[in-house]
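EI: anyone free to look at a 244-residue chain?
SC: sure, send it
EI:
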Amino acid sequence: MHDPQWIIPGIVAPFLFTLVMLMIQQDSDGPLVLRAILGGGVLGMWGNTIFKSSESIMYDRRNGTLEPIMAALAGLNDVIIGRSLWNALVGMLNGLLVLVVAESMFDANVRIADPPLFLVCLLLTLLSLAAVGMLFSALFVYTRRGHMLSSMLEYPIYVLSGALVPVMLLPEAARYASFLLAPSWGVDAMNMAADVTYTHSITGGVFINLAMLAILAVSYYFIATALLIKIERDIRRDGTAVRF
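SC: here you go
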């Protein structure tokens, strides 16, 4: 809240996108409304991840706060993990707000088929988004156009994740790109756990999706960790963290 510009992409924009989808589908059946709400939650988590987590080190370099962070007892990697998890969690709160509005204003009457399994899928998807945030956070250190890239990547990855429409309804080339995104497997698993009539699944089961999500998220984590180690080594070699 200390930097109000983030309220628009992180909270206001996902909320308005979802309200529009609810208005379009207010006369549709329950599953369509449920997917609109899920999409709003994923957009909120993704918006916070791409705009806050991905640019966190870059802002530290600009503001001269990266060196004190590196001198702290917690490692740089731990700091970035904490930021990424928190940003994804704040985005998830947007989904809860959308659910409240959908129930109170649109009488959505949302029902989740398997609540415990849905919660597991949601938490694992959140962790995968945190891993994506870590990866982009490390990658964006090597560019001066991080904010531009964030704006360019926000909506395309939102579409590729399957939050707007199921991945299997996307063009074939886009589908292959979706398969490389851990959140797309998580969103697909959430749809299956929430709606037993969901027929556009990437695979034949929730647990296959969760396994793929875990494999990709762990891969992101190790790649990001390797990049952060390289960044720290370069900073110690050059003797400064503020050059940009």
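EI: DSSP finds ten helices and no strands in the chain.
SC: 👍
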